[in-house]
Amino acid sequence: MDKEGVFELGIPASTEKGTLATASARKRKKKHHPFAVVFILPSLILYTLFVIVPTLGSAYLSFTSWDGISEDIRYIGFANFIEIWSSPRVHNALKNTLIMTVSLVVLENIAAIAMALMVDKVRWFKNLFRSIFYFPTLLSGIVMGFVWAMILNYNFGVVNQILNNMGLGSWTVDWLGDPKYAMLSVILSTVWKGAGYYMIIYLAGLQSIPPELSEAANIDGANGWQQFRFITFPLLAGSVTVCMVLSMISALKIFDQIAVMTDGGPGFATETLTYIIYKVGFGELRQGFGTALAMVLFVIILIITMIQVKILRKREVQY
Amino acid sequence: MLSKSKFKLTAALLAVTLTLGACSTSSSTNSDGNGSTSSSEKVSFTIGYASGDPAAKKAIADSIKKFTDANPSIEIKDMSENTSNSYLDWLKTKDAVGEFPDLVEMRDTEVFADAGKIVELPSDLIELFDSPPEVDGKVWNAPIANNVPQGMIYSKKAYADAGITDLPKTYDEFISIQEKLKSSGITPIVVGGKDIFHMGFWVNKFLIDEVYAEDPDWNSKKTEQAVSFADDNVVQAMTDYKELFQNYVDKGWLSTPDNQTASFLITGKAAQLYSGTWMFSQIEEADPSFEYGFYAIPDREGHVNVIGLPSPAGWTLSAEAAKDPEKTEAIKKFIRFFFEPEQYSQYLASVNGIPSTKAEVTYETGEAMQTALDLMSDPNVTKSLAINNWWGENLIPPQFRNWFYKKLQEMVLNDADVKTYMEQVDAEYDNQVKANSM
Questions:
Q1: If I label B205, which of A315, B68, B192, B268 is the partner at 20 to 30 A Cα–Cα?
Q2: How do residues B98-143 score in pLDDT, each as one tens digit?
Q3: What CATH architecture is B150-307+372-437?
Q4: DSSP labels, B229-253
Q5: Quick one: closest CA in A to B407, which residue?
Q6: Taking the model in full, what pTM does it have?
Q7: B237-294 tens-digit pLDDT
Q8: What CA–CA distance (Å, rounded) separates B406 from A50?
Q9: 3-class SS at B153?
């Protein structure tokens, strides 16, 4: 079977008519190309100026010892990357990034699917629930961070006040000042903020599943969990791919909540790669080193995203 | 066919116009970015200062308002909405987005001078001050105030309730007082550990007692690797620090910001706060009836060492602003106004500061501030500086301070061996010196 003919027209290319039709389609395609470029030109220019050029500039700076304020930019080869490789602080930040990313991706998506299922199934006040679950997403990370920092404050926070009033004073901890709980506090508050966004994507996916499949499963005697496991979840694979990739990228770049809630502390307990890039680049006058860290983070995100998409795409189901 | 071509041409022209329109919009925004000198009568400049301390922020904001009311032809754009996080972070970020203030409260003078970001203080302004500190033989700053001593601000009621009648004459007596306070049921000390700068108050108290009081050039020796953070004196200092934090500091110290510490004191949640004289105004404003005292904690030998040497910090002109003569004149006018005795005394009264000018400036002080002034005038009290306030040969890597304070937080939280941690600190200091020299 001629691949070209089947793809383009559904007619085997061996026929004269099929060959002529294929050639004519190719000619039409070629005619549109220059015109299409004109339409994408504005975006391409802006993307080049504000993304590609700074990225290439950053790649250059990552090989320098620039302090970010002077005009003296000295090339130092791979010294920054060697320091990254051997720095205990960077290793700690990588470890924290990994823990935070895995936790956020898993928890955000589980919460989002659960909320989407609830909103999809509920009969009354569907829109109200959807709004309530989505509302935290509208808050900026900074605002959310300030609010949760007050809620979790050891002395004045609502959480410890409630525990004390319930006679559970021994359960009160410094949620943001104790290394055992600081990371957990940041993760849970971020899940609270972010899950609503992915809920919308999952909800759209749920609503695109034909109801006849559920009805057929009901008739065959499948319970709720079986329906979810064998019908709903596989058909949500496309949404899962999108949400997992987006949540992974977002988790790897988490910054606002850490800046406001913990400043990377206590000590270095919640310092992630993104946060160390900011602290080193802006607070410690080591822009070159910070840029090298940013390049490393860029490569990590790229590799993880490529692997993730490849794995998740395989399980997507068409119906 | 003709109409199709016209359509395509129109669409292409529209696309190009939109792109050029977006470019021209962004460039016209940039030209108004940083307080330009307008061609009309009004001259404007931007000002940046550390606004983490509410009293200091209000005092400077009030000074700016009084100046602009008296000089309507000069506009001052106050950019100082930084939080209590590191001031250097904020300044560096502002520089990165092209908004370095025209007149800036400079604290890392040597670093910014080497980078060409600031200029020397105009010579006609230098004469306002009594021997201002020099960096590389030049005066860069108009010192906003002299460095004030830090010490223990204590609740008189808490001390009375614990049966404490005398202030400590040695560090061991100070520890005994902490035990008495603990036994009386009150948290002895509140620390605003959420703000990294606050950690420096206690760190430097111990470092000055054990290190800088004896050897003001310790930093330069450390840079040359002639001394070490793992030496006995530094280990002793940090051991005292760790023991204090583990035994006498409020449990929530890491999530308590600096601006909450006054309320801890006033509401009776804690008995003492180690800080500087700028806190007096905050305390008095929050509760005028709160009775408090102030004293410097002696070392084990009974000797008193405090922060009090001058350092190169204060109002500084940016290199960019210095290129504009009108702006420079407006800035000089503001600086002269700021340090006029009548206006300056109001500023100092707000922050309980010590004047840096040659001209005599007086203001009414309370008992606590008088204690601070007595410390400064007492020749038997050793004056020193915090680890990051030294300059010249004694300048430390700018990135070291915050890292060191956080490392000490980690040491306390992990109840770790002090010597082991000081060896790590020593290695990191050497790495940072090496990295900065590349």
A1: B268
A2: 999 999 999 999 989 999 999 999 999 999 998 899 999 999 999 9
A3: 3-Layer(aba) Sandwich (3.40)
A4: TTSHHHHHHHHHHHHHHHHHB-TTG
A5: A267
A6: 0.84
A7: 999 999 999 999 999 999 899 989 999 999 999 999 999 999 999 899 999 999 999 9
A8: 35
A9: strand
Q: What is the rounded CA–CA span in Å between residue B375 and residue B296?
A: 8
The angle at the Cα of B236, spanning B231 to B238, to the nearest 5 degrees, equals 100
Choose among B84, B260, B413: nearest CA to A150.
B260
Q: What type of residue is B309?
A: L
How many Cβ contacts (< 8 angstroms) between chains A and B? 133
Q: CA-to-CA distance for A293 and A301, rounded, in angstroms? A: 12
Beta bridge pairs of residue B104: B48, B316
Interface test with A, best of B407, B409, B438 (most A CBs within 10 A): B438
Angle in degrees, CA B213, B216, B219, rounded to 5:
125
The answer to whether residues A231 and A153 belong to one domain is yes
Query: Position B112: which residue type?
Result: F
B20 touches chain A (CB under 8 A): no
Query: What's the CA gap between B150 and B435, in Å, rounded?
Result: 33
Give yes or no for B393 touching A (CB within 8 A).
no
Q: Do B398 and A285 touch (CB under 8 A)?
A: yes
Question: Measured between CB atoms, which of A152, A155, A174 is closest to B269?
Answer: A155
Phi-psi region of A77 (alpha: psi -120 to 50; beta: other; left: phi over 0): left
Mean pLDDT (chain A) is 86
B46-146+311-364 CATH fold: D-Maltodextrin-Binding Protein; domain 2 (3.40.190)
**Which residues, listed in sequence order, are joined to residue B293 by a DSSP beta bridge?**
B154
